[in-house]
Design goal:
By secondary structure, the chain is mainly α. The protein has a single domain, classed as AhpD-like. Helix content is about 70%, strand content about 0%. The chain has 9 helices and no strands. It has helices spanning about 5-10, 10-25, 30-45, 50-60, 65-70, 85-95, 100, 105-115, 115-140. It starts with 6 loop residues before the first helix and ends in a 5-residue tail after the last helix.
Length: about 140
């Protein structure tokens, strides 16, 4: 597949704004491994090969297990994930597929019981930013590193 556009070169100010969101999340209370699960799960749903490749490799380097990454798209079928991770993954899916059913109160509340308000804000922004990155990479046909 041939790439289309390099957004970071054509629109560096817009790209820097996305990086500012990443910086906010990196400095937040959000667990870094959980952030990689969010990024990977949203990228799986969106079918973004570039982001799946990047974030699974980063997660492995952070100590995430291959088994948990391999089974991430079937997280409901296993007990490999904590209740907190499960609640965040469910929220991630709802936000990524927001046109299907918006975000039901029970899913939001389940996540809220496991997260501080600061963590909840970081999770919401994490899902927003990875969905943005997915759309950029897919539309631009960003090649794998």
């Amino acid at each position: 597949m041939e790439s289309r556009i390099n957004v970071s070169k054509i629109a560096p100010t817009a790209y820097e704004a996305m990086l500012a969101l990443e910086k906010y999340i990196a400095q937040s209370e959000l667990d870094k491994k959980l952030y990689k699960l969010i990024k990977t799960r949203a990228s799986q749903i969106n079918g973004c090969a570039y982001c799946i490749n990047m974030h699974t490799n980063e997660a492995l380097k952070m100590g995430e297990t291959a088994q948990r990454l391999f089974l991430l798209d079937a997280w409901r079928e296993t007990d490999l994930y904590t209740e907190k991770e499960r609640a965040v993954l469910e929220l991630t899916e709802c936000m990524t597929l927001i046109s299907n059913n918006h975000v039901p109160d029970e899913i939001y509340q389940k996540a809220a019981t496991h997260l501080s308000e600061n963590e909840m804000a970081a999770v919401i922004m994490a899902v927003v930013v990875i969905n943005g990155w997915n759309r950029i990479a897919i539309t631009a046909r960003t090649p794998l590193d």
